[in-house]
Specification:
The complex is a heterodimer of chains A (254) and B (243). Chain A has ten helices and no strands. Chain A has 254 residues and is mainly alpha-helical. Chain A has one domain: MetI-like (MetI-like fold, Orthogonal Bundle), CATH 1.10.3720.10. In chain B, helix 4 runs parallel beside helix 5. The structure holds adenosine-5'-diphosphate (ADP) and magnesium ion.
Chain lengths: 254, 243
């Protein structure tokens, strides 16, 4: 235990050092360039504080997070259902595999533009566009999970007649957890980046919209301030929600 | 007490589709077996002869055969199946594993806890199975089978790959459990000591397709079953040439 916490604090020390060096390098680079092109950490920090004080930072991050959350839940639900079905039923997989490959390779931009054209510049279109981008990845990951289900345990469930619901809850879902968590991890990273593009192209609020406007005004300081703030929020979700969740789910492992 | 369940088996044909290069193999061809209610029948045969296949057909896991399997007394009996490996859910505790096939009532919970206590495992109920020894895991699998008060109990070499002392303890435990909770048992094994220690009837399987070459009523008393000498003597008398 002691050893572990010691290792943890050296790990933290290294991370802190690495961030300090990065900021210092940024400062040095900024002092050699046009402050309009690359503002230093001080200026970006001031922009961040100002945006925080007038509330626009929190409003826009909140709106973007809500879109991330909605499209994420939608993509995880539909993607998991499709993935598990494809993993369990060989015939379904044979038929739908080419569709999956098509959707996996469609550029995000194409899906977003088509959604806006077909559904209008609406909130629903934005969220569906993001979800469609993510669904194929979730499906592919969960398909692996569906294929790898332990047959011995499924047989046990059937002999003991525990029923569909208990089989799903106690036998199948726990086996899919690592795949599900994998999809969540890569999903979070992918979804928020796509949400920014969707906001840039067709929404009047959110981090993507702010970055788009800042681009028009050549305001690099705002672009960096919002980007860094959002990265910090996503990291916090990882540390405060995902990791504790995963630890709890993995309690049974030796 | 409920009337006991008997079993009538007639397998006309059981063949597995050939694997890769291996030729098709008929596992059973005109195989018949009647198990009386309350009997402890042991099928004894070398590994690969089709013992697990037979239990899978009886349990309904394998329906790809021609023939009929009928239960006497209870058309759809409650079945306990102790598999060749424990098949416990590693992500559920011992108690949760045992509760899995039971209704979610307080009474069922009490039954399960009492059963664990009777089996000397009350201190393991909140432990995850992979932290237990194989012997303990097999004990939990046995508890799960008994907890649902089965009409018939199928057991597939439940004491295999344990050291002799642990296996012996489990055999004693099973005998004790059966004395308190009588049930029809079909037990398959390749170990004749398992058979002689516990069975009321031993059927020796041999050949391909498998058929019964011996059908022996075991008349040993409880005391004799605990005596290594008596068991070896019985083995010499009835089973020597078949092993
Ligand atoms: N799913 C299967 N497909 C093809 N052959 C199988 C399958 N299961 C078992 N067999 C073969 O059938 C024979 C009997 O197997 P099994 O019932 O497991 O024997 P036992 O339990 O007596 O050791 C073995 O030769 C085995 O290789
Ligand atoms: Mg076997």
């Amino acid at each position: 235990m002691k050893k572990q916490s010691a290792r943890r604090s050296t790990h933290l020390a290294w991370s802190a050092l690495s961030i300090v060096v990065l900021v210092a390098a940024w400062q040095v680079a900024a002092s050699f360039s046009d402050p309009r092109l690359l503002p230093g950490p001080g200026r970006v920090g001031a922009t961040l504080v100002a945006a925080g004080l007038d509330g626009s930072l929190f409003t826009n991050i909140g709106i973007t997070l809500a879109r991330v959350f909605a499209s994420f839940v939608l993509a995880m639900t539909i993607g998991s259902a499709i993935g598990i079905a494809l993993g369990r039923v060989v015939l379904l997989n044979r038929f739908f595999d080419p569709w999956l490959i098509l959707f996996l390779n469609l550029p995000a931009l194409v899906i977003i533009i088509l959604c806006y054209i077909w559904l209008g510049l609406t909130e629903v279109a934005a969220i569906i566009a993001v979800a469609i981008n993510k669904i194929p990845n979730v499906a592919v990951t969960l398909r692996e999970g569906g294929r790898a289900l332990d047959r011995d345990l499924l047989e046990m469930a059937s002999v003991y007649r525990i029923g569909r619901w208990r089989t799903l809850r106690h036998v199948i879902l726990p086996q899919l957890t690592p795949y599900f968590m994998g999809a969540v991890r890569s999903g979070l990273a992918l979804v928020w980046k796509i949400v920014l593009v969707v906001e840039l192209l067709g929404r009047g609020s959110g981090v993507g919209f702010v970055i788009g406007s800042a681009f028009q005004l050549f305001d690099v300081s705002t672009i960096l301030a919002y980007a860094l703030a959002f990265v910090a929020v996503i990291q916090m979700i990882e540390f405060l929600i995902l990791q504790p969740c995963e630890r709890r789910l993995n309690r049974w492992r030796r | 007490m409920a009337a006991m369940t008997g079993l009538e088996i007639e397998i006309d044909d059981k063949t597995y589709a050939p694997l890769a290069s291996a030729p098709t193999r008929r596992i059973f061809d005109g195989f018949q077996l009647t198990v009386d209610p309350g009997a402890f029948v042991c099928l004894l045969g070398p590994s690969g002869i089709g013992k697990t296949t037979l239990l899978n057909m009886i349990s309904g896991l394998d329906t790809d055969y021609s023939g009929r399997i009928e239960f006497r007394g209870e058309p759809r009996p409650r079945m306990g199946y102790v598999f060749q490996t424990p098949r416990l859910l590693p992500w559920r505790t011992v108690l949760e594993n045992i509760l899995l096939p039971l209704p979610s009532t307080e009474a069922a919970r009490r039954t399960a806890v009492n059963l664990l206590t009777d089996m000397g495992m009350s201190d393991t109920q909140d432990i995850y199975p992979e932290r237990l020894s194989l012997g303990m895991q097999r004990r939990v699998a046995l508890a799960r089978a008994f907890a649902l008060e089965p009409d018939i109990l199928l057991m597939d070499e439940p004491f295999v790959s344990l050291d002799e002392t642990t296996a012996d303890k489990l055999r004693d435990l099973l005998i004790e459990m059966l004395a308190q909770r009588p049930v029809t048992v079909l037990f398959v094994t390749h170990d004749s000591r398992d058979a002689i220690r516990m069975a009321s009837r031993i059927i020796v399987l041999s050949g391909s397709p498998a058929h019964a070459v011996k059908d022996i009523q075991v008349g040993l008393s409880h005391g004799e079953r605990l005596d290594k000498g008596a068991i070896e003597a019985f083995r010499g008398r009835f089973l020597a040439q078949s092993q």
